[in-house]
Amino acid sequence: MGDRYNIHSQLEHLQSKYIGTGHADTTKWEWASNIHRDTYASYLGHFDLLNHIALCENESKARVRFQLLKKMIQPCGPPHEKMEEN
Q: What Pfam families does this protein's entry cite (predicted)?
């Protein structure tokens, strides 16, 4: 029983420390947005990936960087309306 409490305590600590790990109330949209933003940030942070994308799309690196940054604002579109519980 003590191990189970310890594991849940550690998980709650990680979830409060890092936004991308989610929590019990994380919606599908929030989870998908975090995954997309992490992916775009990885593309921007790795120079070779950015070069590869620019080459494949036949665009300049600056244009690809701008497009990826723009996509990070709302990667999965606007959030869905939450249904209120009565």
A: SF3b10
